[in-house]
Amino acid sequence: RLGNEAFDKMNQLIIQKADLVHAKSKGKKATSTQTHDQSGENQDFNPTPNKGRVQMDATVCDVNIKFPTDVELLSQSREKCEQMIDKFCLHLHLENKPRTYRQNARRDYLNFSKNKKKSKAAVHIALKQQLQYLKRDIGHINNLLDKDIRLLGILSSREYKYWLVVQELYRQQQLMYSTKTHSTNHRIVSIHQPHIRPMVRGKQAKNTEFGPKINISLQKGYARIDQFDFEAFNEGKCLIPQIINYQQLHGHFPDLVQTDDIYMNRHNRQWLTENGIRHTGRPLGRKPKVDLSPYQKRKLREERNERNQVEGKFGQGKTKYKLNKIMAKLPTTQQSWVAAIIFIMNILKLSKDIFLTYFGICFLETIFSFFKTINPRNFKF
Predict the structure, then answer these.
(1) Backbone phi, psi, residue 182, to 5°
(2) What is the widest separation between alpha-carbon atoms in the chain?
(3) What DSSP string describes 123-147?
(4) Fewest Cβ atoms closer than 10 Å to its Cβ: which of 32, 172, 173, 211?
(5) How far, in Å, CA of 187 to CA of 266, rounded?
(6) What is the pLDDT, as a whole number, of residue 282?
(7) Residue-averaged pLDDT of the chain
């Protein structure tokens, strides 16, 4: 279960190796990195000029779960509580079990789920029914635990986790039902994976995604996961830490940062200007009176279009390597799943660069050696 930190260290080695390959292909000597503090300031009196470009973007890695609905989550929680009640009664040798109305609850849920078009009134009635059934089951479990608290000892760690998740799920659903809202903090969308949160992306095809959110930086086609979190976060808060990570790896700031406008808040713009870093964000305020030259417009358009490379990296991971269909269940294994995909894509990119560099050098040596045999005076290699 290697986490993102372990894979990030290997990605740093790959990026350093790629810098050597690019420097060798251009016939330059690779510059050694310098030490930097956490604030990103250079400790040397002669700071290294800004070099390189970095693209940044964030995406959600979907996990392989069924699309959650409130009524279905309450029904699953009710079934888990019924299993706990049966286990407690069997351990206590109770002849008369508490009345749970499980058959009526199952019938009400099936009658609701079979309807293809569910009206708001039908959803409201089904939620109220399942909340009442679940409240009764939770009350029965609490009464049995009041009689003998040692009953928790017969539950496995997995069952005890379900018991905690069910109670929190009931609290959230009851709060949303009473306040007539559809959102709450740290909302549970799966009782089997309670760490998964809904990520509202605002896309046309898929408005909400379910899975961890990652923020990556792309450097010459090589990606690094700078932020990994199961909770939603604003990408604008991650720009400065990402640039500091770039500086600690390469020894200098990037010359150009290519991002979405969500990264370009006023604080980030001011910080980039103070450190002499250009960006592709749209200027704030009114349109300037002095218009750009055709060359400047074409250059700015090309730099903004280069940010599509990071979108292509996401597409490569989701279409070929199942970055949008995480089959792992635990938070640690899901993190390893995502980090391993980024690591594998970097490995493949490095292998292509090494092969093309070696093939190009061999091809040039062959061509120049051929022409040297024809006219050795004018051709030198």
Answers:
(1) -125, 20
(2) 106
(3) HHHHHHHHHHHHHHHHHHHHHHHHH
(4) 32
(5) 31
(6) 86
(7) 86
- Identify whether the C-beta of residue 55 lies closer than 8 Å to the C-beta of residue 307: yes
pLDDT 10s digits, 178-233: 999 989 999 999 999 999 999 988 777 788 899 999 999 999 889 999 999 999 99
Reading the block at residue 55, the tokens are 């693209």
Is the model more confident about 295 or about 28?
A: 295
The residue to which tokens 């294994």 are assigned: 333
- pLDDT, one tens digit per residue, over 107-165 is 999 999 999 889 999 999 999 999 999 999 999 999 999 988 888 999 999 999 999 99
- What is the Cα–Cα distance from 5 to 8, expressed in whole angstroms? 5
The tokens 């509202």 sit on which residue? Answer: 200
Q: How far apart are CA 97 and CA 103, in angstroms?
A: 14
Structure-derived torsion over alpha carbons of residues 177, 179, 180, 185, reported in degrees to the nearest 10? -80
- The tens digit of pLDDT for each residue in 271-329 reads 999 999 999 888 888 877 777 788 888 888 888 888 889 999 999 999 999 899 999 99
Read off the pTM: 0.82
Q: Could you give the 3-state DSSP secondary structure of residue 219? A: strand
> Strand pairing partners for 210?
198
The residue with tokens 């990264």 is 263
Burial of 87 (0-12, 13-18, 19+ CB in 10 A): middle
Which pairs count as long-range contacts for 135-141, CB under 8 Å and 24+ apart, including other chains? 135/170, 135/174, 136/100, 136/101, 137/78, 137/81, 137/82, 137/85, 137/100, 138/81, 138/166, 138/167, 138/170, 140/81, 140/85, 140/98, 140/100, 141/81, 141/84, 141/85, 141/88
**DSSP 3-state assignment of 365?**
helix
> What pLDDT, on the 0 to 100 scale, is given for residue 20?
84
CB 233 within 8 A of CB 79: no
Cα–Cα distance for residue pair 260/56, rounded to 1 Å: 8
CA–centroid distance for 242 within its chain: 15
Whole-angstrom Cα distance, residue 142 to residue 132?
A: 15
Whole-number Å distance between alpha carbons of 372 and 381: 9
Return the H-helix or E-strand segment holding 354: helix 331-374
In sequence order, the 6+-apart residues with CB closer than 8 A to the CB of 46 are none
